[in-house]
Amino acid sequence: MDGFSGYNQILITPEDQHKTSFITPWGTFCYRVMPFGLKNAGVTYQRAMTYIFHDLLHKTVEDYVDDIL
């Protein structure tokens, strides 16, 4: 399973959302969920997958970055 869009399922705490802000001609916006490409996005996603699948890891499930086998 490719978990590429899984990054968009991890919420950013409201006090940290301003750190993802960007300006466009239509206004200033910020992410409410973790976008792919942030410096620690891979580590955060990996930690979430390890937490979710901890009982199955190395038995029936293997996870690596954004892939789950």
TrEMBL record:
Pfam families reported for this sequence: RVT_1
Domain Reverse transcriptase: 1-69
Matches recorded under PANTHER family: RNA-DIRECTED DNA POLYMERASE HOMOLOG, TRANSPOSON TY3-I GAG-POL POLYPROTEIN
Identification of the protein by name: Reverse transcriptase domain-containing protein
Organism: Taxus chinensis
